[in-house]
Amino acid sequence: GENVEQHPSTLSVQEGDSAVIKCTYSDSASNYFPWYKQELGKRPQLIIDIRSNVGEKKDQRIAVTLNKTAKHFSLHITETQPEDSAVYFCAPDPGGGADGLTFGKGTHLIIQP
Amino acid sequence: DGGITQSPKYLFRKEGQNVTLSCEQNLNHDAMYWYRQDPGQGLRLIYYSQIVNDFQKGDIAEGYSVSREKKESFPLTVTSAQKNPTAFYLCASRGNEQFFGPGTRLTVL
């Protein structure tokens, strides 16, 4: 099975600064790399994803970069805002996802005013 | 997300009782999943189903059971054999991407 590690477990940044969360995985067959955001008491929501034929994808203030050789991918948030405060999960997917995703333990992002 | 519903939102159970959590989707997705989330933790897979009338155990299936009689529905039963059932339960379905329902928070009294 897939072993997934996220770093850091907690990240505190000043509002307006950038935040980077890294996810490492073990299964070289992984070909789909989503990031989920979960606000307190709510469901995880997909915020950005990337497939293995692409190295980087950007959507406004968030981006995901992929390094398949090193088996890691990262979430980048620029110009952070208070509403970015949440827990972020990565879930690299080796087999089309039909068998369920393996989630990292999460990164608690705190935006300091 | 939109199109996946779970009920109830909050559920209280006495020790020794079985309870069933509902999950319905109108996204026409074949694959459905149940995850458990404990406070401050990630999500762990309980059961999944790739097609009607078929389902597979996930990483923490002990003490749980499921059925998949209809494409739209994937109910989860938490049995009395589950020793620590208090948790947040999330149902999901998947087409090209995986989307979650709003969750059911189960508390054992």
What's the gist of this structure?
The complex is a heterodimer of chains A (113) and B (109). Chain A is mostly beta strands. Chain A contains no helices and 10 strands.
How would you explain this protein's 3D organization?
The complex is a heterodimer of chains A (113) and B (109). Helices cover 0% and strands 50% of the residues of chain A. Chain A has no helices and ten strands. Chain B has 109 residues and is an all-beta fold. Chain B has no helices and eleven strands. In chain B, strands 2, 4, 5, 6, 9, 10 and 11 form a seven-stranded mixed sheet that branches. In chain B, strands 1-3-8-7 form a four-stranded antiparallel sheet, with no helix packed on it. In chain B, strand 9 and strand 10 (98-100) form a beta hairpin. Classes of the chains: A mainly beta (113), B mainly beta (109). The A-B interface holds A 34, 42-46, 49, 89, 91, 97-106 and B 1, 31, 33, 35, 41-45, 48, 50, 56, 58, 90, 94, 97-103.
Q: Could you state the order of secondary-structure elements of chain A as H and E? A: EEEEEEEEEE
In helices, the fraction of residues of chain B equals: under 10%
Overall geometry of chain B comes to: globular
Number of strands of chain A: 10
How far apart the termini of chain B lie comes to 30 Å
Helix count from the secondary structure assignment of chain A: 0
Strand count of chain B: 11
Q: What's the overall geometry of chain A?
A: globular
Largest sheet of chain B: 7 strands, mixed
Keywords:
heterodimer, A: mainly beta, 5-stranded antiparallel beta sheet, 10 strands, 0% helix, globular, B: 109 residues, mainly beta, 7-stranded mixed beta sheet, 11 strands
Strand and helix map with partners:
The complex is a heterodimer of chains A (113) and B (109).
Chain A: E1 4-7, E2 10-14, E3 19-25, E4 32-38, E5 45-51, E6 56-59, E7 62-67, E8 72-77, E9 86-90, E10 107-112
Parallel strand pairs in A: 2-10
Antiparallel strand pairs in A: 1-3, 3-8, 4-5, 4-9, 6-7, 7-8, 9-10
Chain B: E1 4-7, E2 10-13, E3 19-25, E4 31-37, E5 43-51, E6 54-57, E7 64-66, E8 76-78, E9 87-94, E10 98-100, E11 104-108
Parallel strand pairs in B: 2-11
Antiparallel strand pairs in B: 1-3, 3-8, 4-5, 4-9, 5-6, 7-8, 9-10, 9-11
